[in-house]
Each structure stands twice: as structure tokens, then as C-alpha cells.
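Appendix B, Record 12. Input sequence as logged:
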Amino acid sequence: MNTDLDQALARLADIDEHPGLATIDASVFNGIRANRTSVGTGLGATALAAVGAIALGTASAGPLSTPAAAAPLDPFGIANPLAPSTLLLADR
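Logged structural output:
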């Protein structure tokens, strides 16, 4: 059984390798080294953003603000204003 894939792989095996493949490893590793030197800048920017976010959250909440209180909902009681029976009877 000879398919187009077999012919394509045979043609690929017959061609010579590209001369740039011999130096591709060094190029990739040099790129990785270049990115590692810029990690310190990214880490500093991330730390500054984190400190800024904490400061902004603390300032917006303020020490004098009162905590929010939610109205209690009783899921099984009669006092539930969102029960289907109360919503259907609201039109009558």
C-alpha cells in the first residue's frame, strides 16, 4: 500500500538538511538567556502593581466605612419575597 504520505516522506528523506538547522539550538538558547535577564524588570513591575492595588483597595474602603449588611432571606419560610407564589400573587 503506497499512499501520498509515503511518497511525501520519501521526498523529504531525499533532500539535504537546511544549513541553518546546525545553529538553531544556539539561537534558541541565546533568546532564552536574553529573556531571563529581563525577568527582574517584570518582577519589579508586578510587585509595584500588587502594592498599588493593596493601597488603592485600602484607601477606597477606608477605616471609617461601615460594613455592609445583607437582608436575610429565608429559603423555606413564608417571608421570602422572591418565592414563586409571592411573585405570581403580586399581579392580583
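The longest helix spans residues 39-61.
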